[in-house]
Amino acid sequence: METSDWTDRIRTFAEEREWQQFHTPKNLAMALSVEASELVEIFQWLTPEESAAIMSTDRGQAVRDEVADVMTYLLRFADVLDIDLDAAMAAKTASSAKRYTVEHSKGSAAKR
Amino acid sequence: METSDWTDRIRTFAEEREWQQFHTPKNLAMALSVEASELVEIFQWLTPEESAAIMSTDRGQAVRDEVADVMTYLLRFADVLDIDLDAAMAAKTASSAKRYTVEHSKGSAAKR
Amino acid sequence: METSDWTDRIRTFAEEREWQQFHTPKNLAMALSVEASELVEIFQWLTPEESAAIMSTDRGQAVRDEVADVMTYLLRFADVLDIDLDAAMAAKTASSAKRYTVEHSKGSAAKR
Amino acid sequence: METSDWTDRIRTFAEEREWQQFHTPKNLAMALSVEASELVEIFQWLTPEESAAIMSTDRGQAVRDEVADVMTYLLRFADVLDIDLDAAMAAKTASSAKRYTVEHSKGSAAKR
């Protein structure tokens, strides 16, 4: 997926509806977290094994929809604040590689 | 940004550290929502105006980092469940266009 | 409100339905955060002024319901882990009073 | 725990620091969800069994602190909007008893 294609479509969608007034970074961060929680809700009572098999259940489409909702608000948020996603990913990945070296983090989920 | 490039790098990063055992869909959904909330935390006491100016403050880099964290877990989640992001975005966008017609939703944030 | 009265009722409600199997601390923390996000959803597109007037709108009852949902999962979580709420509140309040002295925090929302 | 005792103390704490300006319902809902997510973060990579044993690990005090943080913002939110917690709990419990009858919900976490 090329994110810039979707960023443009989402911006047009918002502008056609005059939603810029609602799309402050603060409100978009809220909406993003609300959509992420709707994804969590699907999994909250499932065992790890049930969670791994979710796509072959009748909740599979809901999972796809929530993923798209999170992506939509994430792209819109980054667009409104003019954040370069590739640069942000590159910086964060470099920093994570230093904090979570293979040597120290192999098989461990401990925060560093 | 081409998401598949990052999906591959994130998968390799996880595999090198033997993190597949932690990366159940359930756990990744939790991690995604936790990162989205870290973005919310930056904005929680700000006025709408202050939130719009965040990138020119000393919190700008934290915003970029949290955006990358949310993207990382979103791509990892979609990878683990083999979700086609383009297809998910296309389906959701089509459905939103029907639910939120320009006629009914112009200037209104009401849920439909 | 005396929380112990509700803790007992919520426990009985769960046991009658044999929900103890679902009520791991992990799952209850997820459910708590999902309910908190449902409260956030009500406010996500509102101005600060609109948010202050919410109880006199047709969303007022939804706010009351979500507050009760968050309280229910918070009490259930504390019950399952045998957490003494009064002691937890006392410890946290004492620590906050030291971190956020009136001298340093008057009129400032800065995290310390 | 008698919630009204804590509601009063939390209100005084906020007023002494002139934090009423930050404590809009919208901002408090955000803060509540952020604290709930900090609780989720503690559990995100744990197995159900590890999550049940959390209080006897070095993360036990962090769990207590986060529970107190969620309770603090929940009480503050209810105070600012003048929500009667006992009444809200009574209404919600009655409604849940109807939706989740023992007959239909025994041993099932399905949403109704």
From TrEMBL, chains A, B, C, D:
InterPro entries: dCTP_Pyrophosphatase (IPR052555), DCTPP (IPR025984). GO terms for biological process: nucleoside triphosphate catabolic process. Keywords: Hydrolase. Pfam families: MazG-like. One of its GO terms (molecular function) is nucleoside triphosphate diphosphatase activity. Gene3D superfamilies: MazG-like. CDD domains: NTP-PPase_RS21-C6_like (cd11537). PANTHER family: DCTP PYROPHOSPHATASE 1 (PTHR46523). This is Nucleotide pyrophosphohydrolase. It comes from Knoellia flava. The lineage of its organism: Bacteria, Bacillati, Actinomycetota, Actinomycetes, Micrococcales.
